[in-house]
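Quarterly update from the structural biology core.
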Amino acid sequence: MSFGAGARSLGMGKAFVALADDATATYWNPAGLSSIVRQEAIFLHAALWMGTAYDFLSYVYPISGVGTIGLSGTRLYLGGFEGRNEYNKITNTFEDVQSVYGLSIGRKLTDMLSLGANIKYLSHTMGEYVSFGNYILDVGIGLRPGFRGFFEKLTFGLNLQNIFKLDVGEKTSDELPMVMRAGAALKFFRDHITLSTDFEFAGKRTAFHIGAEYLPFEYLAIRLGLDPEEFTLGFGVNFQDYGIDYAFATHALGGSHRISASVKFGPSIERKREVIARDYYIEARAAWESGKYLKAVQLLNKALTYDPKQTEWNETLLKLDRVSKLYPQAAGDEKESQLIRRGVSYYLLGDTETMLNSLRYLISLDPTNRSADELLRVIKKVHNITAPEVGTTKGMSLVEEKLYKCLNYFYDGKYNLVIKEAQEVLALEPDNPVAYKRIGSAYFAIGDKKKAVENWRKSLEMNPSDEDLRDYIIRVEKEIGK
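Predicted structure, tokenized:
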């Protein structure tokens, strides 16, 4: 039961515990299952010596939020034995079959660490006379340190086999020693070359395995391997989701051939997770646009659980979290809710100043508004805004004061400041006719009559009773026509 699994790994001298990145991870290191993102099946057949045959079959299935589970079966077959009676006459023929059936799981705990385990049942049948079995537990560990430079793709693996055994059926003198397999693997040259080593400790026996794989083309792999019993070489061919691998080994008993076939199918679990994350994000966006900030935070947390690479979502989450602690919901039609929703929409686009102005406006309308005041302080602190707050003129709201400033700037000939202040008003009150009127007057003063008329018309749409402005627009449009 120590022969191995998969012609790829056998072609690399069985140095595979730190790689274990395909369906054979159920054998080499169950922690490696965590790196598999699609359903995969592999079948190995090896023609050994004196009519001995070895077969291995494995199927793995990634489950989002759980890990990757695997089912495997291993079979060593020897046939053609003769059964004889006490008179040395042939009575029947029988087979000697050893089999292992396994259930595996591997899960990534962090970007660096993965864990896995196997529960296996081993049975040994010789004809119809002897049958016994063992339940066995294996534990695997995968580690990716995340070094930079040449060692960026360095990985380590550890597989502890037979750490727990439960005998069932007939007793036998066969012993299953605990096996520890530790190794390292390094990919470099844009993943075209892989070197791997394994150290194997089984009771008093130790073994050292070395393997190498070279990919001259995307679809072709060439492999070499060495362990205490064999020198191996092999190759693999991959086309889309299908793969064929072959390995030849020289042994004291002679040469042997190993061939395996693999197939990948179904969507990638990463793609599934991205789709689920995107659905949660869309729900979160709808929630914050309607002013349901606490709900949006909960949905964004779920989205990032499925797709943590979205750094932009994380920044949105941090901003919404600040808001939701003081305004869990701002979904009403009252002025405060409208201002908060408008300010938050600007804040999420990176316009912190408009968010602060929304809060200042609320405070100017109601100086006792503690939620607005506290959120103002929190946002200024987070964004390191140290300028002291300047209160509005007594009896004026922030919008009224800004419109008053527009007049003063206009009289002073500071038309760019008129436009700036009036645009800040429109960020707080998009339907403010006075702001549009003053923007139009500033553009007229600097000679841009078309933009002046454009803004005046918007003002007139919001305040149709302004007959003086209507007459003035008609007069200016005539001048433009001339």
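The chain has three domains: 7-266, 271-382, 401-481.
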